[in-house]
Amino acid sequence: MPDGGSTGIGASVKRKEDYRFLVGEGNYTDDINRPNQTYTYMLRSSSAHAKFSIDTSKASKANGVVKIFVGTDMEVGSIPCGWQVDSKDGTPMREPAHPPIAKDKVRYVGEIIAVIIAESLEDAKNAAELVDVNYDDIPVIIDMQDALDNSKGLVHDEIDSNVCYDWELGDSEAVDKAISEAAHITSLDIRNNRLIPNAMETRSAIGDYEHATGQYTLYTTSQNPHVIRLLMGAFVLGLPEHKLRVIAPDVGGGFGSKIFHYAEEAIVTWASNKIRRPVKWTSDRSEAFISDAHGRDHVTSVKLALDKDGKFLALKVDTLANMGAYLSTFASSVPTYLYATLLAGTYTTPAIHCNVKSIFTNTVPVDAYRGAGRPEATYLIERIVDKAAREMGISQVEIRRKNFIPVDAFPYQTPVALQYDSGNYNATLDAALKKADYEGFAARKADSAKRGMLRGIGFSTYLEACGIAPSAVVGSLGARAGLFECAEVRVHPTGSVTVFTGSHSHGQGHETTFAQLVSEKLGISTDMVEISHGDTNNIPFGMGTYGSRSLAVGGEAIVKAMDKVIAKAKKIAAHIMEASADDIELNNGNFEIAGTDKSMSLADISLAAYVPHNYPHEELEPGLDEKAFYDPLNFTYPGGCHICEVEINPNTGEVKVEGMTAVDDVGKVINPMIVEGQIHGGLAQGIGQALLENAAYDNNGQLLSGSYMDYAMPRADNFVDFKVGNEVTLCTHNSLGVKGCGEVGAIGSPPAVINAVVDALSELGVDDISMPATSEKVWNAINQAKNKN
Amino acid sequence: MEISLKINGKDVKAEVKPNTLLSTFIRENLQLTGTHIGCDTSQCGACAVHLNGDAVKSCAILVAQANGAEITTIEGIANGDELHPMQQAFHENHGLQCGYCTPGMVMSSIKLVENNPNISEEEIRKGLEGNICRCTGYHNIVKSVKQAATVMGG
Ligand code: FES
Ligand code: FES
Fold first, then answer.
1. What are residue A341's phi and psi, to 5 degrees?
2. Are residues B63 and B120 both part of a single domain?
3. CB contact set of B102 (below 8 Å; sequence gap of 6+)
4. Which pLDDT band, with edges at 50, 70 and 90, does A476 fall under?
5. Kind and range of the H or E element at A280?
6. pTM score, two decimals?
7. What is the domain extent for residue B35?
């Protein structure tokens, strides 16, 4: 029984944040209107690569136009990248300038070329029609192979190559040697399809400059308002923190796409000073498709060397990673430190080498999307393991068990830099096999066959690294920021508590989960706790929410702050009850003198702290309000087993997901209901990537999948009920034992789905299919296989 | 042009441009910001409201077309402090995460259930095809609608 009764750790407490959303009183950025505000339309390039000239004279005179800005009007800093990656020859990555408004050259369809500010959005849009733009087109680079050939053109002609960096990790000699001696080699070419995050709330930003005080306020759809304050303030606009407030109110989903500092944020903030009125911009969906950072987009060839019994000897990986036209905030870290370091997966592969070339193309910038690097690593590992098993005639389950890192090997040092602290991969596999009724699969397959259908089952026994991250580690790897988290726990005079956290909630349910931590530790109900986040003027500092770090880093910071509250409360209680602080014990919210029946509640103590009549003034300050910064010692390593079962109609190629089972080890679970919800959402995005979603460009750099008519968003009828379970090994380096659950669904599931599709088609001789496995693609694969046979 | 309609039980008269969308009117003129905009191709359902008893996508019709109509938005379905059974079911079954699709989901689901009190899981999934949620994977939304259906008298 948790100390906090029914609202402590382990209870499926219903969410505190639900009510305002359910009654339509959420407060999203676009719901906010500032007095005397103006409306902005961003005029965007329709050409993927061109020199351009622009004439706004006619538009400036249009009805309702307040001001039009072009690139040369906005002389500010470049939009920065937060992570420097060095090439293997020691040279730093190529980092082209990234102006918020393009000046004389555009490099992707969607790049901002003019900012039209008017009395209404309609006026701004009408004026945009009157802007004269002349494009002088330059050859477009879309394909990454083309980009490697300088003669095909340069995305940035001021730098000498389209390669941002050429980077490696691991021991290539050992890998080559193992490959040359191995009994079996399995090879695979893989494309990890480009995705568009599609949070349902589009991005929005309001800049509000107050002349009298020189204060700027930016309201923005962000996962990390302090990071935006730092990046925009220090690097783009040159504004010191004390003059800049960033508020990220309710945010309608992020999935990574709202981590980054975007041009529009800098533009509205800057412009609100120039025109001395608030400036509001809200993206429409078509605009989001061509201006939100995209995700994934890797092309990889991979080789796995095995001994004659199916033991993995070496893994060799060669990847081209698309950066798009400019480096977005975390873009450079995704295909390197969040990817290559994961290539051991759950296996004891002794030698691993990975080479990554990251490439500029005339496409929207690519950056982190739910999982970021880890889904790409997981996909190639779990696909090649599956293919190897098939080639060697070993079962999909057996080959994995043979190569799992055994439970007694933790802490386990991989050959690609990470040290896993805990895990039990057989336990999650066993539980998943049971939950998915693996034993019944043969009968289900026979039943499908009777109906003329193909049935397949696919596995993924994955692992990921999250809870990012130890600042010293990421600093040594090129991060230009620390990745700690900050929390302040304020006990009010009458004993209720407000927690100020640097983590940001945009669907994850922090207002409930974090309150449960307080309930557990301080022994009060979650009703007595408020979680405050999202405003740089309220929160001491914050690095924000991404990489499944909110609980493992942000939650742990709250625990550290509560530890300080408790230590101080004990001293106050000791003084008042005339005991020694060492003898005070905290039980169920009561500070008791051990072995006596004397005690004080938290409310008694906080009242004494704020009304300090009888108080140890020589020893303590009044008040009960403590702050902590927490920097983790290691990443956390959730893992598990996802099993997908599909049925394919050979006449149409349609793939139906018949079962999706996920048994994950996310460490200690604070709120099982919320954790399950996170996993459901991740699974849907993973299945979406595997079967439906694809961002496609034509050779001219036009996005072909630029609306919900062409980009297949998963709908309710694409899924069945998910079967979700968990097996727990505790994280060994944080006090809560938590690992993180936000991304596991999206990381583990895509290879399970594709392995299931390949399994179903294997009887026809199909051994690979690329994502997304659309009906058309599957139908073609079936027919090609039939023609071959 | 002048329009008059009833929204959440209140009579509203307003002067609007003929090309004003119902969703814009609801959000901008009436400041009922619970109705959300998630797309510009009438495909996400975040903007769903009830118009003369049907669930409609308010971004897909002009306010002029709603002249004289009776409209209910997400702000109008609770009974005072008491949530509508559909809202309550979403709360109890964790049918929402970021909350952005939620108003549209709730409004669409109410009509699904009213029109088909014994609705099956498959019918719920089909029926919600016009509502996109990026957060929940729909699992708990389906569960919520099922529960609400039993409470609403299926
Ligand atoms: S906003 Fe109306 S359907 Fe998307
Ligand atoms: S809850 Fe976020 S889109 Fe549905």
1. -70, -10
2. no
3. A21, A22, B74, B90, B95, B96
4. confident
5. strand A279-282
6. 0.97
7. 2-76
Instruction: Give contacts of A19 with chain B, Cβ < 8 Å.
Output: 91
Question: pLDDT tens-digit profile of A26-78?
Answer: 999 999 999 999 999 999 999 999 999 999 999 999 999 999 999 999 999 99
Instruction: State how far Cα A589 lies from the chain centre.
Output: 36
Please name the member of B41, B94, B134 whose beta carbon is closest to the beta carbon of A253.
B134
Among B76, B110, B131, residue at a domain's last position:
B76
* CA distance between the termini of chain A: 63
Question: Which of B76, B99, B131 is the last residue in one of the domains?
Answer: B76
* pLDDT at position A411 over 50: yes
- Flag whether pLDDT at A3 surpasses 70: no
The pLDDT value recorded for residue A4 is: 41
A452, amino acid identity: G
Is residue A785 exposed (0-12), middle (13-18) or buried (19+ Cβ within 10 Å)? middle
Instruction: State chain A's mean pLDDT as an integer.
Output: 97
pLDDT value, residue A1 = 34
Collapsing DSSP to helix, strand or coil, B102 comes out as helix
**Prediction ipTM score:** 0.98
A118, A281, A125, A287: which is closest to A208 by C-alpha?
A: A281
Asked if A707 lies within 8 A of B41 by C-beta distance, the reply is yes
- CATH classification of the domain holding B134: 1.10.150.120
The torsion defined by the Cα of A234, A240, A241 and A247, in degrees rounded to 10, comes to: -80
Nearest CA among A305, A225, A300, A233 for reference residue A266: A233
Same domain, B110 and B137: yes
CA distances from A730 to A333, A341, A636, A637, B5 (A): 27, 21, 10, 10, 58
Q: What 3-state DSSP class applies to A136?
A: strand
Number of domains in chain B: 2
Comparison of pLDDT for A210 and A3, the residue scoring more? A210
Is B96's C-beta closer than 6 angstroms to any atom of ligand 2?
yes
What is the mean predicted confidence (pLDDT) over A284-298? 98
| pLDDT per position as a tens digit, A539-554 | 999 999 999 999 999 9
- A37 CA to chain B: closest CA distance, Å? 13
Percentage of chain A modeled with pLDDT above 70: 99
Residue minimizing CA distance to atom 4 of ligand 2: B133
> What distances in angstroms separate CA A435 from CA A423, A438, A454, B54, one per listed residue?
19, 8, 22, 41
